[in-house]
Design a protein that fits this description.
The structure holds two protein chains of two kinds. Chain A is built from no helices and eleven strands. In chain A, the strands form two sheets. In chain A, strands 2, 4, 5, 6, 9, 10 and 11 form a seven-stranded mixed β-sheet that branches. Chain A has a four-stranded antiparallel β-sheet with strand order 1-3-8-7, with no helix packed on it. Classes of the chains: A mainly beta, B mainly beta. At the A-B interface, strand 5 and strand 10 of A face strand 5 and strand 10 of B.
Chain lengths: 114, 115
């Protein structure tokens, strides 16, 4: 079974709609991240959370919000989706302060905003 | 503003050849440089990583070369195989306020190894 799961895997929505992408992990990690991947731009950090009470903006947080419902769950919301939010979204986790920490990525959610 | 510049964007090599992907950075606060490998339909996964106090790290056919003075690092894949065909991302980690650790990724290189 996958340690980091994302739902849905694919989503088509219309401009102006609110949508939520969900991430769950069974790795027991404290740290969770949301990235988006665009061709030619690599992975860009949207938000990250180092524990349930800690939420931080990343490089490109405008138009997004997050909720850390529990240690294992981290959701990303698009309040009013727009076409340039069409992208591949990844959730990732890492362990607390383990030196050369590794980030573990989920399988991704492909989002299309029409 | 891209803090980690990666090249080339795409790379095609023959089976058995050497694949080389380069990255450059400006921020001297980076303290850890991982490479991630991503297969189609999957999330990225850590391949190999290096700290700036060493100039080279080798794991099997994969080697990172690090040039601290030039602020450049590269991934070498020896004896490239078709199964190595994937997208490769370099990254750099910086320690910001409150001991937060963030990874900044390069733009990615799509590697194709021809049989």
């Amino acid at each position: 079974d996958a340690d980091v799961t994302q739902t849905p895997r694919n989503r088509i929505t219309k401009t102006g709609k609110r949508i939520m992408l969900e991430c769950s992990q069974t790795k027991g990690h404290d740290r969770m991240y949301w990235y988006r991947q665009d061709p030619g731009l690599g992975l860009r950090l949207i938000y990250y959370s180092f524990d349930v009470k800690d939420i931080n903006k990343g490089e490109i947080s405008d138009g997004y919000s997050v909720s850390r419902q529990a240690q294992a769950k981290f959701s990303l919301s698009l309040e009013s989706a727009i076409p340039n939010q069409t992208a591949l979204y990844f959730c990732a986790t890492s362990d607390r302060d383990r030196g050369l920490e590794t980030q573990y990525f989920g399988p991704g959610t492909r989002l299309l905003v029409l | 503003q891209q803090q980690v510049k990666q090249s080339p964007q795409s790379l095609i090599v023959q089976k058995g050849g050497i694949s080389i992907i380069n990255c450059a950075y400006e921020n001297t606060a980076f303290d850890y440089f991982p490479w991630y490998q991503q297969f189609p339909g999957k999330g990225p996964a850590l391949l190999i990583a290096i700290r700036p106090d060493v100039s080279e790290k080798k794991e099997g056919r994969f080697t990172i070369s690090f040039n601290k003075s030039a602020k450049q690092f590269s991934l070498h894949i020896m004896d490239s195989q078709p199964g190595d065909s994937a997208t490769y991302f370099c990254a750099a980690r910086r320690i910001s306020s409150g001991s937060a650790r963030q990874l900044t990724f390069g733009s990615g290189t799509q590697l194709t190894v021809l049989p």
